[in-house]
User: What shape does this take?
Amino acid sequence: MLMSTLAASGLFAGTSIMPMLAGTDHPEPPRLQAPIILAQALKSERTTAGSQEGDQTQFVAFPVEAQFETGDTWLSGGRRYRLYGLQTCLRGTPVTISPGVIRDCGELNLIMAQALIKDTKPVCTTIKDLDQNNAVVACQTTSGQRRYDLATYMIAEGWGFAAVDASGHLIVPGYRVAEESARSARAGLWAYSDMPHPVAILRGQGSAQR
Assistant: This one.
């Protein structure tokens, strides 16, 4: 089920992400700043992605010195990197993981994001430099002999959500396929009935500011 979801969602995601590699402008969703937490990442090594001949897009292994701010944002080499189209749970929002046991949803999400990155050994490429300190990236991870979009994988596992732009439109429409699959399966954070959906919270904050 997971692999079919990854294939379906990844197909649609590719139609949104590939134009970014060509320099097409796309918006990024709002985000909240959070304290830095050291990541358990991987040794850096260079590789290339794509099996098609002539594909020159260069992907680099997730950096060993990365420091996570949230489950979708990290610091490396003095720059902040944001995983394109993904929104993870917000720091400071509570979730009940068992009767009487409440955790910070953002911190729980961050821990699981680190674990997924360690296990899946993703490679990333910069889609767009927002400024000298911030960039948007797309990452891919390998399962068996196939490579999948990392954000799709995180969403399908229930540890990420399809981000929206300031107008409330999905940044990568295909990610909704993975999110609905995770919700139906009660995967990851969807297992908790009071899970604070970050997109709904950010939308509410945006409405309150208008």
In short: The radius of gyration is 16 Å. The first strand starts at residue 37 and ends at 38.
